[in-house]
Amino acid sequence: MNIKKILNPVDGSDHSIRSTQYAIELAKLLDANIILMHCHARFPIVLSEPYFQQAINEISKGSEELVAPFIELLEKGAVEFDVRILEGAPGNKIPEVARIEEIDLIVMGSRGVTDFTGLLLGSVAHQVLNKSDCPVFITKG
Question: What is the pTM of this model?
Answer without folding.
Answer: 0.86
